[in-house]
Write a structure and sequence with these properties.
Length: 550
């Protein structure tokens, strides 16, 4: 009699072992495939669509204070979304969110930047540790992982005041079920609470659906943080261990919610249905859901701590990959507060085969003249971008870059706010007004401006631009301005060092070398360009005559 039982027991153990072994083999093969892909992609830009509404969510919800926050105007002016797409080589969605938050909040903490640089170098120099870390992070590359940041909201969900009745309901059902062993008639009466509980169970689904992405991904984030803590990585661990400990209660209660998804077979579907009925009958999911919410109500800082921990590791990996795929880059040198900024062979990272330029700002700000397409706007954007990157990812696209700690503000791309009924000129007034306000605060600023007040007439444009640029140039502020107005260069030559970019006409074609040259622009080619475009000779002659009189 006992022999068949032993046989079936051993057969069952063997079957379980075979299933576990098969699952292990599948997992290892999947990891190997992922690793091969990670190795092939190292140092290359990640080409895929990015949902910036979700990426920015962490930045909007995180409570951490920052030295500086890039304005919406500056984010637009430097094409930050395109810049982020180029820089982003992260392996997880929380890492992506963390890196974006880092880019829009430049810091004045030089020690923190140097520490970040050491973390980047660690991954650059330790291939095995890097790849093991990338594999651990890869499960968090799931789209749903964006929604963990939603748990940082001040209010997750208002709990109905009558939820306590569910506890009473569950006690009554349990007592009736036990008593039905002696009084079977109670099984008939149990049909009433069963129907009610099934109703409440599915009524609560609309609540659980709001957290169907964030809860499972938070559980995954906690588990991955545990695994990362076991690695010898140069990242702060103490506060992470405390946060994991404080989130233990959430994980225990979450497991009652998370039974996983069944495979598409009849037996699995039947088991899932049975579990669903048990949860509904005893209101297990409702109790577990509101209990999980209660666990998270005062754990916002702990969730934030884990996002920052995983995010900081992934951001360091991303910048290590960026540097590996970049031909020329440097780490910045930070100087004392002074009107001084030096860049050697600086370039714009988003322009393929970009012409490099060098500049030395000392005591004076910079005014650049030149025609359209000569590259003056690109150059001042490149300076702004590299200044921001110096104070965020400690990486600059240049051979050398030295700078004081700066707050960067800009007025480059102004557009009509048609929906608000504002004119182009009024938009310029508002944007530049914000720069003037910042110039009066006790911080050193870098102001980037392109074509000041081009929305109004020439005489008043030049007069207003001169007055404003002189005002912004006060104290230790650094101003970089590009303009078509040669008259402005004459008015500001004692306060600004003058540079220019110019095009040539060769074989009836415009040729731009995009190289910055010292001194003011002396030649004007606008009328020559009209001639190249085959405008009537009469127009060219009259325009030339008028220009020669001025």
């Amino acid at each position: 009699m006992s022999s068949p039982i032993v046989f079936y027991f051993l057969a069952s153990l063997l079957l379980i072992w075979l299933i576990a072994f098969a699952a292990y083999i599948v997992k290892k093969r999947r990891q190997k495939k992922t690793l091969i892909q990670l190795q092939a992609d190292w140092g290359k830009p990640t080409i895929n669509e990015r949902n910036f509404d979700l990426i920015e969510n962490f930045s909007l919800l995180t409570t951490s204070t920052s030295f500086h926050q890039l304005s919406k105007q500056t984010i637009t002016d430097i094409d930050l979304h395109d810049l982020f797409t180029f820089i982003d080589r992260t392996n997880s969605k929380p890492g992506q969110q963390y890196l974006f938050n880092k880019l829009v909040k430049p810091t004045n903490d030089i020690l923190a930047l140097e520490n970040f640089n050491q973390q980047v170098n660690f991954f650059a120099e330790n291939k095995t540790a890097r790849e093991e870390t990338q594999l651990l992070l890869s499960p968090m590359n799931h789209h749903d992982a964006y929604y963990i940041s939603n748990l940082l909201k001040d209010k997750l969900l208002d709990k109905p005041g009558w939820v306590w009745l569910f506890a009473v309901d569950s006690i009554i059902v349990t007592v009736m079920l036990i008593c039905s062993l002696k009084f079977p008639v109670l099984l008939i009466w149990l049909m009433i609470p069963l129907a009610l509980n099934i109703f409440f169970h599915y009524w609560n689904k609309k609540n659980t659906e709001k957290f169907s992405k964030s809860f499972p991904q938070l559980d995954s984030l906690i588990n991955i943080s545990k695994l990362l803590l076991k690695k010898e990585l140069p990242f702060e661990k103490a506060h992470v261990q405390q946060s994991i400990f404080r989130l233990k209660g959430f994980q225990k209660k979450f497991r009652l919610l998370n039974f996983g998804e069944a495979d598409n077979n009849d037996i699995a579907q039947m088991l899932l249905l049975l579990l669903e009925l048990i949860k509904a009958f005893f209101l297990i999911e409702i109790h577990s859901f509101f209990s999980s919410l209660k666990e998270l109500r005062n754990k916002r800082d702990d969730v934030n701590s884990l996002i920052n921990y995983v995010g900081s590791i992934d951001a360091a990996l991303s910048i290590a990959a960026l540097r590996a795929g970049t031909r020329v880059y440097t780490t910045p040198v930070f100087t004392k507060q002074k009107k001084e900024l030096r860049a050697k062979s600086l370039y714009h990272p988003l322009i393929e085969n970009c012409i490099v330029n060098s500049i030395a700002i000392e005591d004076k700000s910079i005014l650049i003249t030149g025609s359209n397409m000569s590259g003056k706007s690109t150059f001042i954007r490149a300076v702004a971008i590299n200044s921001i990157l110096a104070q965020t990812i400690y990486t600059c696209f240049a051979e050398e870059f030295s700078t004081p700690v700066l707050k960067v503000f800009s007025s480059v791309r102004i557009t009509d706010s048609l929906l608000e009924g504002k004119s182009y000129y009024f938009e310029e007034v508002s944007t530049i007004g914000a720069l003037i306000e910042q110039s009066e605060k006790p911080f050193q600023n870098l102001f980037i401006l392109d074509e000041v007040f081009k929305g109004t007439n020439t005489v008043e444009r030049v007069a207003a631009a001169k007055a404003i640029l002189s005002y912004l140039n006060k104290n230790e502020n650094i101003v970089l301005v590009s303009t078509h107005d040669i008259e402005l260069a004459d008015l500001l030559q004692t306060e600004f060092d003058l540079y220019h970019l110019v095009e040539d006409i060769e074989n009836d074609e415009l040729v731009f070398d995009h190289r910055l040259k010292t001194g003011p622009l002396k030649s004007r080619n606008a009328i020559k360009i009209l001639s190249l475009a085959n405008y009537p000779a009469e127009i060219i002659a009259e325009a030339t005559a008028i220009a020669n009189k001025n």
